[in-house]
Amino acid sequence: MSKLKVGVIGCGSISRYRHLPEYAANNLVEITAVCDIVELRADEMAEKYGAQAYTDYEKMLAEADIEIVSVCTPNYLHAPMSIAALNAGKHVLCEKPMATSQEDALAMIEAAKASGKKLMIAHNQRFVPSHAKARELIEKGEVGKIHSFRTAFGHPGPEGWSIDGKESWFFRKEEAFIGAMGDLGVHKTDLLRYLLGEEFVEVGAFVESSAKENSTVDDNAVCVLKSESGIVGTLAASWAYGREDNSTIIYGENAVLRLEDHPEYSLVVQYRNGETVNYELGKIQSNEDGGQNSTRVIETFVDSIVNDTVPPVNGEEGMKSLNVVLAALESSETKQIVQVKK
């Protein structure tokens, strides 16, 4: 079978540390085109991966011999670039959050349906071994009825990760639209939906912009979420933590699951009868690992194309996770409990 040809739009940190190396490591694909409005960055990645460099994504879509496109650009460009790529007959892997509004997310989903091509959103938390094991235990009934949860995703901020440092688009509302909630919170809304196996219906949130100078987006948020069956819990997303915290705790009637909350064990199960089971399943990927651990996002996306299956985080899934974040922003602005859109 001939290899699937890939084009990557955006040559910043997420493509350098995640998309490009993971495509390069996959023997089912080859990187043939890269694009960035900063010519030097496009040229650098093109040379590294033996690809053609572009500074205009529309030119890349029209001219390059590609079947797959990764969209690794600022948030406000996710929808228009993904739609253009889908309309050009390409499969699309889009970074999160998939869009900056439900309307744009729906337009992406429609474009995927009309083109008959795959659309996947790069939510990587579902593929973390501890998270997959926790879902398995919940589905088997070992945890019993789930009553509550708390999850956090925080680190010192994108200036330590972004290729542009403190000048990054992450801090500009017109380009990012959402700050820590879009960068980190949306990962956790997706994870919780996956673990609990149900949707969130109501959100109450405090979303603040107090930790970063010269920033026009949120950087510190705490939300209370309620699921359709009445599970309530908290989600925190922050760019103000001194060290990364990517932990989740699920409280069930038979057991408490502690995910990524222990320095050695990626999953700790504390049963009601006093028994504790520790799992060493490998570390969760983080900004601090320099891209050493695979996210399995690329692998999963490529497999869905090769085997013609629905990507696990398709457009509909991405939109449901986005809608929880949009409801949190609305709640913070209105000081009301907000219903999550369906």
From TrEMBL:
Pfam families on file: GFO_IDH_MocA, GFO_IDH_MocA_C3
Record's keyword annotation contains Cell inner membrane: no
Domain GFO/IDH/MocA-like oxidoreductase: 132-257
Leader sequence residues: none
Molecular function as annotated in GO: nucleotide binding; oxidoreductase activity
The keyword Oxidoreductase belongs to this UniProt entry's keyword annotation: yes
Residue ranges of every copy of the Gfo/Idh/MocA-like oxidoreductase N-terminal domain listed in the record: 4-123
Keyword terms, alphabetized: Oxidoreductase
Protein name, as recorded: Gfo/Idh/MocA family oxidoreductase
Taxonomic path: Bacteria, Bacillati, Bacillota, Bacilli, Bacillales
